């Protein structure tokens, strides 16, 4: 039997790749509708017996199988907005670059790398301005780190609903292998004056995003990254340069980086006062809450998936911490009454996501699956009730509450957020 | 183990201990090879920015407002700028159209005690949440109006800042702002922000 894939089937598989070849990078991040339009004439025939028919020839860009269709979402068409990683469709710690979540405050700028400059100035011995080629002449490192938007999980915290997907619940976290120059190398090169305690990072987008960073982070593990997962950054991730501050809230990892200014105090920009601050009971608000605390989410099974039948199933998910390595993930199949240690599917690197797994023998009953992560700094993922108690219902960022999934007798899986 | 490495690092780094010990600890992390430390000026890569480049790029305005440019504008003039250039998105009364276009003007009584932790619906406005008036100048100059950032003159920016502060009942409707006057503005929320105090028992 030969089946023609419908245009809908093609959405994120061959369609995107063919479109990308024809139209260039623009399509890679275009919304799903564009991808469909670009692929209107591209049809793939699925033979009844692939061992009896020549396959497709080589191609300039590897496409996903037309049966594999992960897409970021929601696609709102907004330039000030976000689009989330489909966590439920992925595995391993690394997020494919074209599925890395997006959060922009003034859209994605188109930047000519030949014209882009990085300026370092202020309280340094020597102000410097670097081209991209010059920056790449410095010694570089490759590191795996997650980036998580500070707003990740807001919907699931405020208004948990059974039909939420893993993407909607926690899709504003992605992990990449970043390559770039350690900021400490650059700061040593220009000579930091002893009185410098903070620096300002500025992006080259249409809001000239600015965030203040304590200088200790530069001496610790900050990177000026130009590459992600083995190739130059995607435009949506800051091409040609971004700041990577491992473990720290997404917004401060300034994309399209063009300027670093060293000074003696934070600048108190709009993105560290009006936004990204955390109101507390007692009429105060925390500022400069940089680290994203330890967190985990089960991605398999998750809504709208289901358990295919009785017997053994892997419960898998992602865990990460902005304070170092995840040291432990526990899974509960009874809503938190008892917990079992999950295993790590790979190596837990500091400030990077790790996949965990726990084998679950389903005998057809109702279950509430939860996951709870612990990090090497001694933090344990809190319940939603504990977050509410500590910060109040008005808290607006940095949600790391325990979440999970209800398994019904028919194998159906729905979100559970009220922990 | 980590502690021992930390002490070694402290001993080795002498004067710069506070900064470099952290780097040494990170480098000692078994996951990755240590980052080699080079001396200042070792590579001599890159040019010195020209004065013109510095002036063109170094436009940020800190909380003290030391960098504020020349120019002036009144709240009354700002009302016009707002009506013509901002109201289409932020609403004629600055009420916004959440979540797309933020509310800019409100002194909702529920916000007066800075009780934002109790209810996400209490509107956070310039008048009740922003700790520094200078941030408003800095932000509008870099990012607004959304589709034509950087298009307002210094006078127009002072004017629209004055209008927003007056409409938020921070300064009188009759006020005019220039650098000196803007530096002197005291925001209602200026003392409300505290350092991060999270701990393993305090999320």
**CATH top level label of one domain in chain B:** Mainly Alpha
On the 0-100 scale, what is the average pLDDT of chain B? 88
Q: N- to C-terminal separation of chain A?
A: 49 Å
Number of beta strands of chain B: 3
- The Rg value of chain A, from CA coordinates, equals 23 Å
The chain pair forming the largest interface, with residue counts per chain, is: A-B, 82 and 65 residues
Helical run tally of chain B: 9
For the sheet with most strands of chain B, the description reads: 2 strands, antiparallel
Report the average pLDDT across residues of chain A. Answer: 92
Per DSSP, what share of the residues of chain A sits in E-state strands of 2 or more residues?
A: 25-35%
Catalogue the unreliable spans of chain A: 1-31
Topology (SSEs and partners):
The complex is a heterodimer of chains A (419) and B (203).
Chain A: E1 3-4, H1 14-23, H2 25-28, H3 32-38, E2 45-46, E3 81-83, E4 102-104, E5 117-122, E6 128-131, H4 132-135, E7 141-148, H5 154-158, H6 166-170, E8 173-182, H7 183-190, E9 198-203, E10 210-214, H8 215-220, E11 223-228, E12 231-232, E13 242-244, E14 257-263, E15 278-280, E16 284-287, E17 295-300, E18 311-320, E19 326-332, E20 340-341, E21 343-344, E22 354-362, E23 367-375, H9 384-391, E24 404-407, E25 413-416
Parallel strand pairs in A: 5-14
Antiparallel strand pairs in A: 1-2, 3-4, 5-6, 7-8, 8-11, 9-10, 9-14, 11-12, 11-13, 15-16, 17-18, 18-22, 19-20, 19-23, 21-22, 23-24, 24-25
Chain B: H1 2-13, H2 17-28, H3 51-57, E1 72-74, H4 75-85, H5 87-90, H6 126-129, H7 133-143, H8 154-167, E2 176-178, H9 179-184, E3 193-195
Antiparallel strand pairs in B: 1-2
Helix pairs in contact in B: 1-2, 4-8, 7-8
């Amino acid at each position: 039997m030969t089946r023609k894939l419908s245009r809908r089937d093609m959405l994120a598989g061959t369609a995107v790749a063919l479109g990308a070849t024809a139209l260039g990078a623009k399509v890679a991040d275009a919304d799903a509708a564009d991808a469909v339009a670009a692929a209107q004439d591209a049809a793939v025939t699925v033979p009844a017996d692939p061992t009896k028919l020549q396959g497709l020839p080589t191609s300039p860009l590897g496409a996903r199988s037309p049966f594999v269709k992960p897409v970021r979402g929601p696609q709102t068409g907004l330039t000030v907005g976000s689009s989330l990683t489909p966590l439920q469709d992925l595995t391993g710690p690394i997020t494919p670059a074209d599925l890395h979540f997006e959060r922009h405050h003034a859209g994605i700028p188109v930047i000519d790398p030949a014209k882009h400059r990085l300026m370092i100035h202020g309280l340094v011995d020597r102000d410097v301005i670097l081209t991209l080629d010059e920056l790449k002449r410095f010694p570089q490192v490759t590191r795996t780190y997650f980036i998580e938007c500070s707003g990740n999980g807001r919907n699931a915290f405020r208004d948990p609903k059974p039909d939420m997907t893993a993407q909607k619940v926690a899709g504003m976290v992605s992990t990449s292998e970043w390559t770039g120059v350690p900021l400490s190398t650059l700061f040593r090169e220009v000579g930091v004056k002893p009185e410098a305690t903070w620096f300002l990072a500025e992006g080259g987008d249409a809001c000239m995003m600015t965030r203040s960073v304590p200088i200790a982070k530069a001496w610790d593990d900050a990177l000026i990254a130009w590459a992600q997962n083995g190739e130059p950054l995607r435009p949506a991730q800051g091409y040609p340069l971004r700041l990577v501050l491992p473990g720290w809230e997404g917004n401060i990892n300034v994309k399209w980086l063009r300027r670093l200014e060293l000074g003696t105090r934070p600048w108190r920009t709009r993105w560290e006062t009006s936004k990204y601050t955390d109101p507390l009971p007692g009429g105060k608000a925390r500022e400069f809450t940089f680290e994203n605390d330890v967190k985990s989410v089960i991605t398999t099974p998750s809504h709208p998936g289901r358990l295919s039948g009785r017997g053994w199933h892997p419960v898998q998910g992602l865990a990460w911490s902005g304070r170092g390595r995840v040291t432990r993930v526990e899974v509960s199949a009874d809503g938190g009454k008892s917990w079992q240690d999950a295993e790590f599917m790979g190596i837990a690197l500091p400030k990077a996501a790790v996949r965990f797994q726990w084998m679950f023998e389903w005998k057809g009953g109702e279950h509430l699956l939860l996951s709870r992560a612990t990090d090497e700094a001694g933090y344990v993922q809190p319940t939603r009730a504990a977050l509410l108690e500590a910060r109040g219902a008005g808290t607006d960022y940095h949600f790391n509450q325990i979440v999970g999934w209800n398994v019904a007798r028919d194998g159906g899986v729905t979100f559970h957020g009220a922990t | 183990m980590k502690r021992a490495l930390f002490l070694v690092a402290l001993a080795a780094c002498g004067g710069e201990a506070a900064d470099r010990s952290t780097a040494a600890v990170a480098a000692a992390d078994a996951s990755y090879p240590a980052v080699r430390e080079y001396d200042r000026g070792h590579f001599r890569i890159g040019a010195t920015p020209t004065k013109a480049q510095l002036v063109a790029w170094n436009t940020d305005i800190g909380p003290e407002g030391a960098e504020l440019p020349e120019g002036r504008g009144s709240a009354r003039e700002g009302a016009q700028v707002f009506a013509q250039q901002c109201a289409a998105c932020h609403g004629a009364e600055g009420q916004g159209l959440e979540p797309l276009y933020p509310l800019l003007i409100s002194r909702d009584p529920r916000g007066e005690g800075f009780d934002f932790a109790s209810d996400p619906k209490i509107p956070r406005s310039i008048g009740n949440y922003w700790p520094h008036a200078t941030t408003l100048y800095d932000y509008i100059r870099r990012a607004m109006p959304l589709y034509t950032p950087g298009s307002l003159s210094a006078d127009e920016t002072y004017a629209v800042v004055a209008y927003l502060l007056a409409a938020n009942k921070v300064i009188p409707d009759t006020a005019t702002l220039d650098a000196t006057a803007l530096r002197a503005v005291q925001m209602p929320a200026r003392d409300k922000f505290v350092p991060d105090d999270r701990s393993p028992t305090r999320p």
